[in-house]
Amino acid sequence: MTGGALPVSIITGYLGAGKTTFINQLLSNPNELAITILVNDFGSISIDDALIESQSADTITLANGCICCTLGSSLVTTLCSVLDAPRRPDWLIIEASGVAEPAKLYNIAKAEPDLSLENVICLVDCATISDWLSDHDVGSVVARQVQQSDLLLLNKCDLVDEVKQSSVTALLQQQNPKAQLFPTVDSKLPFEVARQSSCLSKENLAQAMLESIPGQSHDREFERWTLELTGVIEEKRLRKALRHLDSCVHRLKGLVRLEHCNEIAQVQYAGGRLKITPYQGSDSGLGEALVAIGPAGHDMATHLDQRFSNISGPER
Amino acid sequence: MTDDARILSARRVVTMNPSMPFATHVLVRDGRVLATGSLEEVSNWGDFPIDDTFGDSIFLPGFVEGHSHMMAGGIWRYTYVGFHDREDPNGKHWRGIYNIKDLAIRLAESEKALAGSDDPLICWGFDPIFFNEKRLNRHDLDRVSSTRPIVVWHSNFHLMTVNSVALAMVGYDPGTNIEGVLLDDDGSPNGELQELAAMFPLMRRLKINLREFGNSAQSIEAYGRVARRCGVTTATDLFSDLLDEDIRQLNEATLSDEYPLRLVPALSGHSGTPDDIAQRAKEISATRNDKLRLGLVKLMTDGSIQGFTAQLKWPGYYRGPNHGIWNIAPEALFDLVGTLNREGLQVHVHVNGDAASELAIKAFKKALTHHPRPDHRHTLQHCQMADRSQFHQMAALRLGVNLFANHIFFFGDQHRDITMGPERASRMDACRTALDEGVNLSIHSDAPVTPMGPLTVAWCAANRLTGSGQVLGPMECITLDEAMRAITLGPARSLHLDHEIGSIESGKRADFAILDADPYEVGAAELNKINVIGTVVGGTAFTDL
């Protein structure tokens, strides 16, 4: 523990919007953070225990509700135990109940000096949000979830057509003009954005969107390039292939098997910087491949194909 | 085993058993009623010693509190500063606090009992809604102490007023801009903290642990004393996490012959998936003894009417904002009710507003249509705004209801003038309609929200007088007999215990409320003036009040 305030993110959204999937996605991203998740919602899907183990993250379930009964005491007791533990986590994620008002939770992070509110992320099911917003019973709370968030993750874009997606976008912008909007599928959001979306500028967010590689929803704007690798690769040649890449390559990442040690390494290229590091995760089921993304219309694929045309053959 | 049978005599025994409504003697053996009747009648069972200790008193069946919380005992570790007079678990009478001056005097008295000069002074139950003066602020409390933190918790537990020392502890200062931290005209915090977020940092630093109020050994013990002081021999704890450790403690406490209360705690249905909850409820029901029954599940839907957080049908609140909340998503409620019903469990659902009761009725209707179940005894709790059409549906679905009759006295004026308006306030807690439609009726205190006291609840249901003495909805008054039933057999049935408790009759447990006057002599209008002398639980008398 550093002694500073514990960063808190609130994940909100109505039932079925993809909150649990979102948290599982976050946890599957390799990172060094000790994350504690307070789960305040109980859908049919639960947090993937395997992921939690691999991430040394901790989940605590909460009963939600009013302070005047034991419902609220669960939140108080749990937050106190997280804050007063000998080792605090690096990041506290609170998955709000599907009918919770995020303000009631994020106000705690604002009031408590030992907590610092990082962001409020609202997951929105593109296909159902307009129905929920006009629902007799829960419309008002769904609207407050949208209104009280920093980032609206426009989820399940693959389930709707372009017309529907833009009408939902307009509806959400009308509800919350200040929030950043991030169209995606399968609750995907880059880890860095989830961590600090509230301090990202629009440009940075657009960049993150490019980098997120979620597939379908961005296919109209972005180009993807994939290279399946079979044999081993020499690290020197890999570095050479990635040297001075054209700026149309916004991000490239993947796993490769290095020749000199016959071990899997993780490759990350972003913002002109390349990192090749030993891969810590388990390699079961993971193929060796590289994936890149960049804006459509810049011939990124051709550029990269050339660079990698001779990656594993005899050196020319 | 020696025969412990003895005959208890009373001035009159009101049995609530129609086949022998009144008696003078009860023959008790092995904690149960062997016979009731005249001395001659019960003596036909054999020659047993006669215990005349309560020969001048009245026996009623031990009262059953179908909706209260263990916190009603534990909260007394803090100083009471509510508007209405109350008795603490030790029988000390606490006068109501009618203004800020009274409050300052009470605080100064309590301060003397504190050891360290910086020990916090914490009070509960404060109710400025009844005051006719400026709102309490930190300056009023600073005059009591400028060295120790002072917390005056308001009666609904959603607000507190604190002194400057307490504000400094959490760093609330003129630069603070946090929702719920109220400011003076000059921009500095005035001491009032609203809602959990603003209160949390202080609760953390003062180690105010709400969970402990409801689970510690001291709370269980204090709850027993609260109950026995008002003639209650069986009480719920209607919403509990019921962790293994809690269950161990409850079992240990209730196994003791010294413990004066049968407990029926309800498992919170909000701590897992429907299948988790169902499994847990079944699992914990294996722990049982004569004074402990587990397995009931409680669900929460909306908030409270006086807090403007209840879910209301059109036209909503009369005056004041609508802050209606759901504690569970409507679809999730359908899922939970469906699963729990299918798994053979019993569900009690908190519903205050009529939109909440409507939703719960729909959920039960769906669950019972898919999976019909005889004698489920699912029950709607509070159910304050249900109208005749909803009671009709409850009857059709065989749902029970436990109405919050105390609201008529404690908040009735506010409901008429502020929350509901006169027309709808008149039909609140519609006991008459419930009975007319054939719904099993219980009435309750929701202690500590209002003080536990079944005779007071019965008085409220029978007379419907508000705090200011006006009758609110006279057509909803019930008879004395109906009211007495609603604090005995009604709740006993709602807890699946009416074969064991709720009346004084052969075969049932020897649980009595010992009163100094006979409700049937005194009449409905004076029910609340009857004193409780003590209780008998399983044949053991508890009177050292």
Main β-sheet, spatial strand arrangement of chain A: 3-2-4-1-5-6-7
Oligomer: heterodimer
CA-based gyration radius of chain B: 24 Å
Largest sheet of chain A: 7 strands, parallel
CATH architecture name of the largest domain in chain B: Alpha-Beta Barrel
Task: Please provide the ordered H/E string of secondary-structure elements of chain A.
Answer: EHEHEHEHEHHEHEHHEHEEEEH
The number of E-state strands of chain B comes to 24
CATH architecture of the largest domain in chain A: 3-Layer(aba) Sandwich
**CATH homologous superfamily designation of the largest domain in chain B:** Metal-dependent hydrolases
Major sheet summary line of chain B: 8 strands, mixed
- Regarding CATH, which class of the largest domain in chain A? Alpha Beta
Strand content of chain B: 15-25%
CATH topology of the largest domain in chain B, what is it called? TIM Barrel
Structural class determined from secondary elements of chain A: alpha/beta
Protein chains sharing the most extensive interface: A-B, 44 and 50 residues
- Low-confidence sequence ranges of chain A: 43-54, 213-218
Shape of chain B: globular
Proportion in helices of chain A: 25-40%
First-to-last CA distance of chain B: 31 Å
